[in-house]
Amino acid sequence: MQHRIIVLGAGYTGAVTAGRLAKRLHREDVTITLVTPEPDFVERVRLHQLAVGQDLRPRPFSELFANTGVELKLARVTGVDVDHKAVMVTPADGPETEELHYDTLVYALGSGWDDGGVPGVTEHAYEVSSRTGALRLRERLADLGAGRPVAVVGGGLTGLEAATEIAEARPDLDVALAASGTLGDWLSDKGRAHVGRVVDRLGITVHERAVVTAVGPDAVTTADGRTVPSQITVWATGFAVHPLAQATTLDLTDRGQILVDTTMRSVSHEDVYAVGDAASAIGPGGKPLRMSCASGVPMAWQAADAIAARLTGAKIPRISIRYYQQCISLGRKEGLIQFVTADDQARERALTGRGAAFYKEMICKGAAWGVANPTVGMPSRRRRVVQPQARMDVPAGTVA
Fold it and tell me: Which keywords are on file for this protein (predicted)?
């Protein structure tokens, strides 16, 4: 009987996990089903580009996973029953719910925008955390006349990239950025200075220490009483995990992330693994890994290798999950590569200008390439699954 592996979600982490498992395990011994509602891979790190009218290269899963043994299930996940090892999905081509059963589950449903409970966000704001959201913003920006105000709320990576991309693509608009702290306050002195110069050159008005408390159809309001005019408000204050896990019996954090051990296996259910934004894993310095592609892809490698090792009786390899840099695009001509410590603290060293923009572009291309080539440069001999009683396994929550 084949061991049934189901991977929920086909973002960077889910797609990489599925592809890596397919390279590690013998096709006669396992089935690998990747559940995703969209037929194409979404380059989430480029959605701010899509929002301003740029066309992204299509990457159909049918091509990415051709001849790999990964079976695509185009469907939306509506429920997970981890106690009975079942997943409920609604196929893209029909309204009827189906039930899929698994032996091993990889939960990679990721995250979406977080409205923070701020009044007016869901009614009036736009987001760039999903392709649907980016396309909706794209349409609205295309209809917006010259001289009209646009406000981007959120001074982190997503907010900076969205604000600079919009200002560069539409210099005829009045773009503002509202940050809860100071501009680039987590960056090095060199990094902050460069961001400030680029923002000034693009004509972006920065509102620092501006905690937005309400979003209206034509303005945002801050906690200190400021009113920032806005015909389009882009909400980029952070991410919230997919809420589906909260309806399960999995052990979760207060944020709804699945608690995992060092191999990305759930601490409460040994047949469930979680990767990417959906999981809470501890990184260097005892700190939880942040929601990012930089964290998620190594988590996917670790989960796939651990699953394959446990099924084949091999020793579980250890993947180093640490940080090296934060890559920020500041439009198409400028960028910032902020080098960081293993636990993600800014070093003084930073790469700026066109060189940084090129560096970031190579990182984006490499991330997409890695989805289709999850084991290039590494041994990828497919191993046979051993009988359950012979597997070299350990209880959930321990280090193997």
Answer: FAD, Flavoprotein, Oxidoreductase
